[in-house]
C-alpha cells in the first residue's frame, strides 16, 4: 500500500513538473501521506499501517516542491508577514497569499464543539492555506477584466495589476476564498508561488525542497523522478 | 510627519462614562517616547491626577504598542498595558504585558494605542473593527470565564477577531487579576481595573497594514534572516544547547535550548523530531525550545502536540499538550502553559503529588489543570507569590485562624494532603469565591494588613517577597549580585527584567561572558561568577542601568524582554558576540527615521526617568532610597555562617548595597541622597514639563 502511495506521488510530481516546464497547466496541490513525508525526508518516523492522514500537502513550483505539514505549524504567522513584505513592501496579513490567521483560533470553521476541534481554542492545530493553482481556475474564469492568467515562467495564476479593477469577482469565485482585494490599492492579491513563506518558516512547516535535493532523496530510496 | 511608517499614527480614546469615542494623533507621544510603555507613562502622568487610586473612575488604562509590533521583527508580539496598580501599596503605576495576537491586531485595525477612561454603569465590551468602534452591552458575558467570553464575542465579530477579556477575578476587582487574550496570554495586575470600569472585554480585528519604510522591504527581510540565522538563541536567549551536540562547542544543562536528536513533539501526528538546530538554519529556530520537557520533565515529551507562542515570534516558549486526564475534571484534553510557564500552580500542592514525583505524571496533570483554571478565571499569580502566600498562610497556621470555621470546613483539604490534582479546582474555585480565602488575591500588602502575617512573612528567606512594595524577587541577587538586586528595587511590581538575566544565563563559560561584559559595560568586573561575588563597582552600576533602560525600550518599541536584547549569539564565527544595535536597525527600517543604538538608548533613558518621576508623584515623596528602593533582610541574612563576597553564597552586604544605590543614582544623574530625578536631568532628557509639575508639588530634590 505504501509502495502504491509513493508511486502515485512521484507520478503526480513528475507530471506537474513536466506541465510546468511546458505550459504551466494543472498545478493543483498533492495530498501527502505519512509514508510520502518519510520518503522525502520530512519525518524520521516510520509510518505504520494505522497512521491517520496528516493533512500534509505538496505544491510543485519552479524552484522545487513546497511541502506543507500542519503538525509542525506553531501559529507564529510569520509566513503572512513575510509574504506581504516580499510582495507588497508592507506587513498586511489581511491580503497575504498564504493564510493562517483566519484558521488560528478555531480552524476552518467555528462550531459549538470548538474546545475539541482545530484551532488554538481547541486542539491547537491549524493549517496554513494557500492558492491551489487549480487546473480549471475559477478566479480567472470569473474575472471580467481578464486580469488573471497563468504566468509562463512559474505556471502560477497571476493577477495583472494593470488590468485588475478590484471588483472582487475572483474572491467570490474561489471555493476557498484565497484571493483578497487589498483595501489600500484596490487590487486583487493571490499566490504567485514565490516560495518566500517556506524559505522563512521557522519550523519547516512550510518547506521548500529544491529539485536537485528531491531527486537525490528519491534516488537514495531507489526511485527516479525523471 | 507626512508618511508615517512603523506606527499607525493614531490612537483610540474610549470614555466609558460618557460613551465618547475619539481618534487622536499618537505621534505627539511616539516621536520622543517610542510608544508602548513610553506613551503609557506620559498619558498617565498628564491625565491621571496625583492621589488617584487604581479602582477610581479617574484612573485610566493605556494599552499601547510600538513601531515594531505587527512588523515581523522577531519577538514583537507583546502588548504593553499601563495603569495604576491596585496591588502596589501606593497604587503606583505599573505595566502589565501580554503576548498573543492582541497588539498586532490593534495595529492592523489602525491604532498604536487604546486609552480607556471613565467607568461604565453596567457591564460593557468594546468592539473595534478598523475605524468602526462601539461600546456594546456585556451583561450576558458577566460571570463567564475568559474562554467562553472570547467565544461569545467571536460569534459576533467573526472567528479571526482577537479578544482581550477579564475573568471572574477581574470582575470582582481582585488586586491580582489579569487581562487575557488568545487563551493563555495574560497581563498581570490590571484585570481588576477593567473590572472597576465594568469593562469585560475588548474585541479587535482589522484589514489594514503596518507599513515599513518605503523601498526597504528587501533590507527588512535580510535583517530578519541575519537575526534568525546568526544572532538569536532559544528561549531567554540561551545560546548553547542543553546537551553536547555535533556542532556545538559548549553546552549547559540549564539551557532552554533543549532540542536534540531523538527528542520529539511526541503527540504531533506524525511526531516531529526537534533534532539539532544549529545556527544558520532558519527553518529550525522554532524547534530549539522544547519547553514542555524543560518545565514538566521527560514525562511531557509524548504529550507534546507542539510549541506555541506569540505573534511573529520565532522562539516558541509555550507548550501545547494533549492531557486526556483533564477530562475527569470537566476540561477538554488539551492544555497549555500560563505566560510564566507551568510551574506556579504546583506551589499550592503543599504535600507534593500522590505519586511522590516532582516531575511525574500527577505533577503534569496538576500543573496543566491549574494553568487552565488560572487563565480562564483571569487570576494573576504575582509571579508565583500568590501560591507562596497560600503556603505561608497555611503552614504558619494563619489561614486556619482567619478563615471562618464554616468556610474552613467547606474546603476539601484532603485533596491537598493526598497530592490529588483535584486540589487545583478547590484552590482556584475558592480564590474566585467570595469567602475569606479569596483575599489571597489582595496581594502581599493588603493581605498582611488584613491577616497580620507578621515580620517573618516579609523577611524570611524562601518566601521571596522583595520589598514592602509587595512584589516578589525576579532574577535578583542570585542574578549578577548587586546588578540583579538593583534592578529588583526599581519597579513598582516584580521587575520582569531579563536584560541582565538573558546574558548571565546564556550558557556560555564565565570567562567569555566577562570578556563580553567588558566590551559592553567597560570592564569584565561588571559581572561576577555565580555565587562568587565582589564588592560594588561602577561597571555593575552601568550594567544595571543599561538593563533597566533596555527593558523600558522593549516595553515601548515593543519587543519581548524575555529574549531581547541580543548581547550574545550562538555563532562561533562571531565568537558568540550578539548585536546590540539590532533594535535600532529594526527601528530605522520600520520608521524610516535613522536611529543609532546610542540615540535609542537615550530615548529609553527618558522613559525610565518618566517612570521614576511618576513613582515619585504617586508616592508623594522624593525619598526613593528609603521609601521605595528597599531590599529585603534575607538578601543580607541568608547563609548565616558565611560572609558576603566569599565563594559559595549569594549573600550581599548592607553598606555595599547602599553604595550600589548611590552609584546607580549617579549613573542616572539623580539626587544621590534620595534617588529622585533632578530638574537638571529631566531637562537634559527633554522632560521640562515633568520637572515643572514635580516642582509645583514640591517633589524635586
Structural write-up:
- The complex is a heterodimer of chains A (226) and B (701).
- Chain A is α+β, with helices and mostly antiparallel strands and 226 residues long.
- Chain A is 29% helix and 15% strand.
- Chain A contains 8 helices and 11 strands.
- Chain B has 27 helices and 20 strands.
- Chain B has a 6-stranded mixed β-sheet with strand order 2-1-6-3-4-5. Chain B has a 6-stranded mixed β-sheet with strand order 8-7-12-9-10-11, with helices on both faces.
- In chain B, 36% of the residues lie in helices and 12% in strands.
- With 701 residues, chain B is an alpha+beta fold.
- In chain B, helix 7 (217-231) runs antiparallel to helix 21 (582-591).
Topology:
The complex is a heterodimer of chains A (about 230) and B (about 700).
Chain A: H1 2-22, E1 30-32, H2 34-39, E2 56-61, E3 64-68, H3 78-88, E4 90-91, E5 98-99, H4 101-104, E6 129-130, H5 138-142, E7 148-150, E8 157-159, H6 169-173, E9 180-181, E10 188-189, H7 196-199, E11 206-210, H8 211-220
Chain B: E1 10-15, E2 21-25, H1 27-33, H2 36-47, E3 61-64, E4 79-84, E5 93-98, H3 102-109, E6 113-117, E7 124-129, E8 132-137, H4 146-157, E9 162-165, H5 168-171, E10 178-181, E11 185-188, H6 191-196, E12 199-205, E13 210-211, H7 217-231, E14 264-265, E15 272-273, H8 291-296, E16 304-308, E17 318-322, E18 334-336, H9 361-377, H10 385-395, H11 398-402, H12 405-410, H13 413-417, H14 423-431, H15 444-451, H16 455-459, E19 465-467, E20 471-472, H17 482-490, H18 499-504, H19 510-521, H20 538-557, H21 582-591, H22 597-619, H23 624-627, H24 633-637, H25 654-668, H26 679-684, H27 688-696
Helix pairs in contact in B: 2-20, 2-22, 7-21, 9-14, 17-20, 20-22, 20-25
- How many H/I helices of chain B? 27
Q: What does the overall shape of chain B look like?
A: globular
Shape of chain A: globular
- Integer-rounded radius of gyration of chain B: 24 Å
Low-confidence stretches of chain B: none
Q: Oligomeric status of the shown chains?
A: heterodimer
Largest interface: A-B, 56 and 60 residues
Helix proportion of chain A: 25-40%
Cα distance spanning the termini of chain B:
37 Å
The biggest beta sheet of chain B reads: 6 strands, mixed
Q: Spell out the helices and strands of chain A N to C.
A: HEHEEHEEHEHEEHEEHEH
Rg calc of chain A: 18 Å
Mean pLDDT of chain B: 97
Count of DSSP-assigned helices of chain A: 8
| Strand line-up of the largest beta sheet of chain A | 1-2-3-11
